[in-house]
Structure formats: C-alpha cells, structure tokens
Amino acid sequence: MIKTYSYLLLSLFIITSCGDDKGVERTSEKDQPVEQKVDSTENTSGRFVKDPNLEPNVIVAGKIKNGQHVPLIVEANTDRGAIVIAKGNSDAEGNFNLEGAIEDMGVYQLRIEEKIPQGAEPRVVPMTLVPEDSVYMTMDFNNYNQSVRYAATSWSEPLNRYMDEMNKFVEWQKSITNPRQYQQKELMKMVMDKKKPMDEFTMDYMKENPANPANILLMTNLVPMMGYENYDIAQLEALQAMHKAYEKEYPEHPMTVQVGKQVAQIENDYNEFKKFKENNEAPEIALENPQGKVMKLSDLQGKYVLIDFWASWCGPCRRENPNVVRLYQKYRSENFDIFSVSLDKDKEKWIRAIKADGLIWDNHVSDLKYWDSEVVSKYQIKGIPHTVLIDPEGKIIATKLRGAALEQKLKEIFGK
Questions:
Q1: CATH superfamily of 286-414
Q2: Residue 2 has what pLDDT?
C-alpha cells in the first residue's frame, strides 16, 4: 500500500518526452512511469527470527469480510526476500488468528497468498509489529488494501488515521486521468494542496509521539520524492525527532541506523539545494567514470564548465551532442570544459554512446541509477537534456542552454 501510494504520486509527473520543456518533462526510455523506491521500510524491516523453535510472541488476528477460507501469510519483506512469520487460513466466517515469533520491532505485512492476475495489485496490508503485540485487523476481501482497520496496539490509531488520509489522496490521484492537460506548476500545486492534510497529520503525530513504531510507515510521507522545491523543513524536523527518539527507544536497531542515514542524507541534500537556489552555487558532483574512477565537479574549479545531463536512451540529448562537441572544440583552449553526467542505467550503452557521439572530453560520470540518481534532486532536473553553465568560482551563470542559445552565451563569455 505504501509503495502503491509512492508509485501513483510519481506517475503524475513522469509521463512525457525527455526533452519537453513545456509540460511534465521527465521520462524513462519507453516513456513509462518509474517507481521510486523508498529505503525506509524495505531493507531493514527488523531483527528476524533465526530459531524456528522460538515461542510465538505476536498474534495477528481479525476478520475478512467476503473472505472465507483465505490463505494468509504474515511476513517481513527484506532485500533477502520474504521471511515468513506465520501462515494460516481464515475460517468460514472470514475470521483468522495467526501466531508467530519476531525478534524485535519492525515492518511486516499480512498478505493473501494467491496467484496475481497480470496488472493487478497483490492483496497486502502493512503493520509495525513489536514483541508481545496482539493486533486485531478487519478488512474487505474485495477492497483489501484500502479497507484495513487496526485495533488493540499502540500503533493502531495513528496508522488508521494515516491510512484514511492516504486513501483520500490516492483516490484523488486516480481521478487525474490526463495529467498532460495541466502545466507542471499547476499540477504540482494541486498535488501539494491535496497532500497537505496527510503531511500535517504525519508531522504533528511524529513530533508528539516520535518513538511510536507506526512512524516507520508514516515517515515515507515525509521523504522528498519530488525534490526540494516544495519541501517543508518541518518535515525534516519531524524525521529528526523520530530518529532521536528511536536512538533512545531502539538503540543500535537496524531500523534506527537506517532512519539515521536517511535523515542525514535528506538534511545534506536540503542544505545543498538551499545553496543551489539561494546562493546560486552548483552542488558538488562526485561520481565514477566508466573506468570506476571518482571524478569531482570541484576538480574543474577555475574553469567555465558546462554540466551536461544526458543519457544514451534520450533522443533529444543525442541530437544535441554534435552541437556540444562543436562548441567544445571551439572553446576548449579558452578555459572551458564539459562535465557530462549520464542518467543511464546500462553501463555498456552509456560507453557506446560516448564513443559513437564523439564526446571527446575527459569528464564523464554516472551512478547508473537512472532517475533515482542523486543529481536529479540536487539540480532539480525535470527533463533531459539539461545543462548548467558555471563560472570559475562555481557560480551558476545559466541553465537549460542548448543549440543557438548555448552558442550565444559562450560567445558572450569568450568574445568570439
């Protein structure tokens, strides 16, 4: 459910060609939505049971309307695959009672075990179990993911409230059947307005109850999945309060460590964005070149540098490359250089494109993370090709220059 929300939110924005500056700009190779993964719940869901003989210490019970004799699994989703905590079936009335053992607080889910038709969502609802929990859940088989209600635990009430707000937001998103009819700024304002009640509830609750296990799920709403242009610093403050409380309540817990890393990354990126917007400074880029050597933008300080964001799969980028090569050859002896940053995910295609397009300068980098690259949020990239021209002190002179506009700007700088 949490991942479904993230996907729907992003799909409003990632829908057009990689070079369209008039509408929503960012796309994949096939102009399809890309799901952004959120690290807060997947890789460190808790400390899991290694001893199969451990006595059960959690109960997941409830009733599924229209769900007679349904096979159910309580599990933890990890990067090592699903770890099963308990299995069983609902009875003839839809009642179920599953017992299992966990080692510590973490994110778990109750999933219906069934063959999923192509294009359909799996029936799965999240929960944040702690040892000795006895949670009672109700849901409708026909609307399983959206109808869940929790009871009998410390995290039931906030999760119910959060699900209520999230379901309202998801339903609104589904009503936007043609995002192309809106300009980017208009669509962004609509999203932020509709998302505001969920944001406000999440921030207020996390600040008042920072150690509650429910916050592991609530925090996904405060991660800046759309960059920092409209990011509220109060969201970061709520995450910081949560991490501080978790350090006290769950010291050295994998989730506490993960939350700490994520909060630190958000704080760093937010500060760099402020420098980018307020001081007009180009954020540092330090990524590997095709040979695995880390190359830094700051190593070119003292030169005029065109930071060129592109990808082998981006048609407009490839069409612009001959112009960029020509201007590099013209001004390379005039204290001018190019720092190419690829949003590729296939290393071989990236390397082949560099060679095929004759990109003869030395500075080619990528983290091969596609639209999940750290540079996307740092530089507020909404589409490629995207260029940023900086002066010898690292100050931004201009952005989105290409074709004749790029040539004219360089002519102004170098006088020829």
A1: Glutaredoxin (3.40.30.10)
A2: 42
